[in-house]
Specification:
Elements: H1 8-17, E1 26-30, E2 42-48, E3 66-72, E4 75-81, H2 92-95, H3 97-104, E5 109-118, E6 128-135, H4 164-177, E7 182-188, H5 197-205, E8 210-212, H6 216-224, E9 228-238, H7 249-273
Parallel strand pairs: 1-4, 1-5, 5-9, 6-7, 7-8
Antiparallel strand pairs: 2-3, 3-4, 5-8, 6-9
The structure holds hypoxanthine (HPA).
């Protein structure tokens, strides 16, 4: 042991490596209600986060919290099923630990998926959106604190968090599959409350197309590490109310379910073509 305390990500990586030497090429974070992909890969091994020291445990019902190692069409991948959110009470640095550890496993790219509310009036429940940029001004930065130069620089350039080539690949995959795909800006709020009508108005005025409670902080932490990131949002409901699109809760569930399946197909196709 050196004279310095090991960083939490080193301890976590060591704990993962004690369990498997699997070398994933792509990391995928599955958003709320988008866990279907976990049942649709050739699984090699699973590691519940509860068995990893220092790992945050998801307190959200239905969020399992595990790494799943396996193959999608012969491409080695690691899935994070059941991420933790800032609103659960963990410091933001802990919230991004699972994606930092994924990056340290040696993946070449990370795909972040999420469910979010729509702000762009041309969207509807079920719209899939390729994230082109983000706004995290309403959540703390995971980079606050002494800079860890093993991860990245003190003042990282965040002008292109979402990789342009991967965005093009996502659009090609969507075209190939005949799946409609929009582009847009994702804005992260802390949650857990949804938005008030005035907040919705404000976020839309700021140029955001979707609002959610995850992903942005992960994007910042991964950009800091120089990781290639792709982000895909599934619009599950229209946060903005002055649209002509009216629907019932049951209808939203149905649409979200269907869109979740489309998103699953899209992610698989991107991995295949990677
Ligand atoms: N706001 C924030 N997060 C969300 C929403 C929303 O409207 N819908 C799904 N996740």
């Amino acid at each position: 042991m050196g004279d310095k305390k090991m960083a939490d990500y080193d301890l976590a990586l060591q704990a993962v490596r004690a369990r498997t030497d699997f070398k994933p090429r792509i990391g995928i974070v599955l958003g709320s209600g988008l866990g279907g992909l976990a049942d649709d890969i050739e699984v090699v091994t699973r590691i519940p986060c509860s068995e990893l020291d220092g790992f945050p445990q998801s307190t959200v019902e239905g969020h399992k919290g595990e790494y799943i190692f396996g193959y999608i069409d012969k491409v080695p991948v690691v899935l994070m099923n059941g991420r933790v959110h800032y609103y659960e009470g963990y410091p933001i640095q802990k919230v991004v630990l699972p994606v930092r550890v994924m990056a340290l496993m040696g993946v070449e790219a990370i795909i972040l998926t999420n469910a979010a509310g729509g702000l762009n009036t041309s969207f509807h429940p079920g719209t899939l959106m390729c994230i082109t940029d983000q706004n995290t001004a309403f959540v703390p930065s995971p980079l606050v604190g002494p800079n860890d130069s093993k991860l990245g620089v003190r003042f990282p350039d965040v002008s292109a968090i979402y990789d342009k080539e991967l965005q093009a690949l996502l659009h090609k995959a969507a075209d190939d599959l005949g799946i409609e795909l929009a582009d847009g800006v994702y804005l992260q709020i802390t949650g857990p409350a949804y938005e008030t009508p005035n907040e919705v108005k404000m976020y839309a005025m700021l140029g955001a197309d979707a609002v959610g409670m995850s992903t942005g902080c992960e994007g910042v932490a991964l950009c800091h590490m120089g990781m290639r990131v792709l982000g895909i949002t599934c619009i599950t409901d229209m946060a903005i109310v002055n649209t002509t699109f009216e629907t019932s809760h049951e209808e939203i569930q149905k649409v979200a379910n269907r869109a979740g399946k489309q998103l699953q197909k899209l992610v698989k196709e991107v991995v295949k073509q990677f």
